[in-house]
Design brief:
By secondary structure, the chain is an alpha+beta fold. The chain folds into two domains: 36 residues, no CATH class; 123 residues, Ubiquitin-like (UB roll) (Roll), CATH 3.10.20. 29% of the residues lie in helices and 27% in strands. The N terminus is likely disordered.
Amino acid sequence: MRCQDLTDVAFGRSPSDRSERWRERGCRRTALDSAAMAMVTFVDETTAGDRGTAWQLEISEQQLTLREIIRRRVFQEVAEHNAAGGDHFRGLVQPGGTEHTRSGFRMSKHRQVDAEEQFSRAVDAFSRNGFVVLVDDRQVEDLEADLRLHRGVEITFLKLVPLVGG
């Protein structure tokens, strides 16, 4: 595998793991390589005012579509869940056969979550207005919109909570 290919290796590894793979193959990261990387911060919020813990994902491209950003986020969440185990999935959308709880989506027993299925569910939820996406506080309404990524960009996924009695 070439050094350049290592920036696009499968999801589920932390940036430190990627750096270790670069060193193993004798690759060198330059200041230019690091400058081109965007550290994207993901935040989940609800219209009820709840705000989840922010987490970051390193992305090598400077521009991606919203669809691709959602795909990368979902694949990262699934990879982390599948690697860690546990009976709760904490992610953007609810996997099939789970129960919604305050701390995520509870499974009757630990099982692997399918990343492609989760991505499909996320795109469907976005299309049905299950959540809106804000990039640096600007709403993005089109999955095919090209988004410029920069260091410190914050992408908020605002999950819409149905009104009770209303």
